[in-house]
Amino acid sequence: MATKSVPPPNEAIDSDWPEAWYMNESEDTDQKALNRKEPNEAVSVSVLRALGISYWKLNADKYMDSYPLKAVPWDPSDAADPELAALRDDRGYSYADVITIHRDHLPNYDKMIKCFFEEHIHDAEEIRFIINGSGFFDLRDLNDKWIRIHVKKGDLMTLPEGIYHRFTCDEKDYIHAMRLFIGQPVWTPFNRPQEDHESRLKYIKAFLSKNESMKQNMTGEEPAVKKSKKEDTATEDPTLSPAAE
Ligand code: KMT
């Protein structure tokens, strides 16, 4: 589909970023609930940037009807939104798929939901554009605390290679999203712990070591090194792969 050519949009100004907060980390909470602390502890955009997050706000209202509910893969050159097309070209997003996470639309729904919520890293950047609906990306801060980011329609967010993170739908239980990739997609999640994984080491060097002073300012505590009960390393989990269906 031919789209009008426009320059790639700038990253969103701070006030347009999605809301983020430190999570209540009690074990027995519902993963789809807000899980805020009491009182709420908001997370600033500067903290999110220090963790390597980038964010653009796109006009999803205008173009959402032009995306299928599911297309695996989806040709990113079909983007009707000229800003998305410009971003795709500028950042080299050569692969995309479109999925809808809802019981009626996602095969193996229960397994997929569980898999998305397992703490993991990837060996590439994660790029997600929210076409409709909403959900939570949780990621570890400089002190290994969970930050919850509430993504909604129009949000395009990237998570850097090697960051510990997970995803869940919120209580509305519906998200329609485009997953973009540079080159051939690799869906393998590497579940925590991955302290010696090349991508984790790269992330520590690029973001955690660099922000040592910010880390100490945040709590005055030494960072905790959490070990997962899971002893496995890479999980070649076909459920993350669009080819699984
Ligand atoms: C992921 O990597 O967690 C997913 O692809 C699911 C979320 S897409 C909004």
Account of the 3D structure:
This protein is α+β, with helices and mostly antiparallel strands and 245 residues long. The protein has one domain: Sandwich (Jelly Rolls). The protein is 19% helix and 25% strand. The strands form 2 sheets. Strands 1, 2, 3, 4, 6, 7, 8, 9 and 10 form a 9-stranded antiparallel β-sheet that branches. A two-stranded antiparallel ribbon has the order 5-11. The two termini are 27 Å apart. The structure holds 4-(methylsulfanyl)-2-oxobutanoic acid. 4-(methylsulfanyl)-2-oxobutanoic acid (KMT) binds next to strand 6 and strand 10.
User: Ranges with pLDDT <50 over ≥5 residues?
Assistant: 220-239
For the CA atoms, what is the radius of gyration?
18 Å
User: What is the number of domains?
Assistant: 1
Distance between the termini: 27 Å
Give the helix proportion (percent range).
10-25%
Instruction: Name the CATH homologous superfamily.
Output: Jelly Rolls
Known CATH architecture: Sandwich
Number of helices: 6
- What's the SSE pattern? EHEHEHEHEEEEEEEHH
- Dominant shape: globular
Number of strands: 11
What are the main properties of this structure?
single chain; 245 residues; alpha+beta; Jelly Rolls; nine-stranded antiparallel beta sheet; 19% helix; binds 4-(methylsulfanyl)-2-oxobutanoic acid
Structure summarized in a few sentences:
With 245 residues, this protein is an alpha+beta fold. It has 6 helices and 11 strands. The chain has helices at 45-50, 60-63, 82-91, 109-116, 198-208, 212-219; strands at 20-22, 54-57, 71-74, 95-101, 120-121, 126-140, 146-152, 155-159, 165-169, 175-181, 190-191.
